[in-house]
Write a structure and sequence with these properties.
about 220 residues, alpha+beta, Glutaredoxin, Glutathione S-transferase Yfyf (Class Pi), Chain A, domain 2, 4-stranded mixed beta sheet, 10 helices, 4 strands, binds glutathione
Length: about 220
Amino acid sequence: MLELYYSPGACSLAAHIALEEAQLTYRLHRVETSKGQQLSEDYRKINPMAQVPALRLDCGAVLTQIPALLNYIARLRPDATLLPTSPVKQARADEWASLLTSALHPAFVVHFRPQRYSQDESLLPGMRREGKAHDWKMLQHVEARLPGGTSVLPGEWSLLDGYALVFYLWGLRVDLPVTDLPKYHQLARATAQRPAVARVLKTEGLQFATDALVTPEEKRAS
Ligand SMILES: N[C@@H](CCC(=O)N[C@@H](CS)C(=O)NCC(=O)O)C(=O)O
């Protein structure tokens, strides 16, 4: 059985959503990064980078890096078309995965974990401040690039929407005005209302996300 190592609300949420959307059977292992559990010797044997997510495959091998996990999971369910298959759409999907991994995620790392880049305590508050300003710039960049509608790829839900949701929620958590980004907000709302995503948000204890993105009427109707 597939085994996902995750931390609630971390970027591993994208892989968790993918497994649930794919309707695969999997086991969850909670590794709380806020408590430093990813740094344990035991976890480093699973992922030497000491990061979540990690996905243990049926053959025992461990796969890391979200784009790789999303691609792998999508290929296990070709019938569900969780990622596009035509060359141009596939390239566009790869472009988004790269953008989220290499621009959005690192912006938040400077904000959340500046100590990774400097040992000088006096520099950290400024790095946090600058990091947060850069987070906002990157979220606005996503807004500008989104096609409109409810998904990252025009008119087509994909696993990238779950990945994009991660950074929207991080913005929400640190009080960035993400609700003022109309396309991104619409995408986040539509994604949070998908039954598979709602189950994952509940399992990870991310009630704040559901409260922000799903109205009481919508909750009652689901
Ligand atoms: N490029 C990696 C990034 C993984 C990553 O940075 N994970 C974070 C959680 S969002 C983590 O485990 N942080 C703990 C740490 O760096 O100590 C991926 O795509 O999976």
